[in-house]
TrEMBL record:
Protein name according to UniProt: Short-chain dehydrogenase/reductase SDR
Pfam families reported in the protein's UniProt record: adh_short_C2
Organism the protein comes from: Saccharophagus degradans (strain 2-40 / ATCC 43961 / DSM 17024)
PANTHER family: OXIDOREDUCTASE, SHORT-CHAIN DEHYDROGENASE/REDUCTASE FAMILY (AFU_ORTHOLOGUE AFUA_5G02870), SHORT-CHAIN DEHYDROGENASE_REDUCTASE FAMILY PROTEIN
Stored InterPro entries: NAD(P)-bd_dom_sf, Sc_DH/Rdtase_CS, SDR_fam
Length: 253
């Protein structure tokens, strides 16, 4: 890894697979120290840990369920002990339920999505602000929330509840950005379109991205690297005057 004056530390929730994993790898190549959380998949977390260390990065993985307040507090306390600071937070952890109409939703399904996709990111933002904000003696920082183009499209007949949780993330991004803009913190969101990840298996069809490819103006499915590169740009000084923005990475959809 290239010699740097002082590596910045980024915390990535849900970092062991898919988009989160790609963000961690790109962050390692950009000389970040990395803390990533995973929920249950120790094998995936160990594999990522090994890859990050092979790239020369200082990396720490921690099992933490960020759909709960206890899990969020555990994650940030671990980060405090591991690095002593957090310069950036990427709220990536999230999930989708099997494709279904609203009239078939159960309360349990919706509550699970709200806990992981909305409550978790809000609580992670709370803990990050307490550490980054100049109001608390911090030195500023960045938050990037992973939303979805579904927030605009609504995902009818598939998962309106998931789309609604991502609309909440868009609102969180805009509101928090204004709230902490004068405290050294920038807050933005990336809204992926149809991306080739295992998340689609959770909706019931792993091949879904390629079945919907014709709906994408660019006529191609996005990759996890497309999203990771957008996130790293928003974290960088090249985006230093950008806050409260929703960056669509969706092939024009």
């Amino acid at each position: 890894m290239a010699d740097t004056k002082s590596n910045k530390a980024v915390l990535i929730t849900g970092g062991s697979r898919g988009i989160g994993r790609a963000i961690a790898i790109h962050a390692a190549k950009a000389s970040y120290d990395i803390i990533f959380s995973y929920r249950t998949n120790l094998d995936a977390a160990t594999s990522l840990y090994d890859e990050l260390h092979a790239l020369g990065a200082k990396a720490h993985g921690v099992q933490a369920d960020v759909s709960t307040e206890a899990g969020v507090i555990r994650l940030f306390q671990f980060a405090d002990e591991a690095t002593g600071r957090i310069d950036s937070l990427v709220n990536n952890a999230g999930n989708v339920a099997p494709s279904s109409r609203v009239d078939s939703f159960s309360a349990a399904r919706v509550n699970d999505l709200l806990a992981l996709n909305v409550l978790g990111p809000i609580l992670c933002c709370r803990e990050a602000v307490k550490r980054m904000s100049t109001l608390y003696g911090g030195r500023g920082g960045n938050i990037v929330n992973i939303s979805s183009i579904a927030a605009s499209l609504g995902s009818p007949g598939e998962y309106v509840d998931y789309a609604a949780t991502k609309a909440a993330i868009d609102t969180l991004t805009k509101g928090l950005a204004k709230e902490v803009a004068n405290e050294g913190i920038r807050v933005n969101a990336v809204r992926p379109g149809i991306i080739d990840t295992d998340l689609h298996a959770n909706s019931g069809d792993r091949k879904r991205p390629f079945k919907l490819q014709s709906l994408i103006p660019m006529q191609k499915v996005g990759t996890v690297d497309d999203i990771a590169q957008a996130v790293l740009w928003l974290l960088s000084d090249e985006a230093s005057y950008i806050t409260g923005s929703l960056l669509d990475v969706s092939g024009g959809r």
